Amino acid sequence: MKHGRSLVVLATGTFMIAAALSAVGCGGGDRDVATARPASGARAVILIAVDGLRGDRFGAHGGAVATPSLDAMAGSASRFDWCFAQAPDPAASFASLLTGLYPTTSGVLEAGDRLPDAAVSLAEALSAAGLTTAAFVEGEPGGDDFGLRQGFSVYEASAEPGAAAKQWLRDHARENFLLVLRGWSVGLDASLGTAVEGVEPPAGFLERLQAVLASARTDAPVAFEPADLEYLKLLYARRVEAADRALGELRAELEELGLAGRATVILTGTAGLDLGQHGPNGAQSLHATVTRVPLLLSIPGGRGAAQTIDKVVELVDLMPTILELQGVAVPAGVQGASLLPIIDGTGRPPYIAFSEAPGLGRQRAVALGGLRLVQSLDGGSRALFDLAADPAELTDIAAAQADKVAVMERHLEAWGKLVAAVSLDPELRTAEELDDATLDQLRSLGYIQ
Question: Angle at which helices 436-445 and 402-421 pack, to 10 degrees?
Answer without folding.
Answer: 100
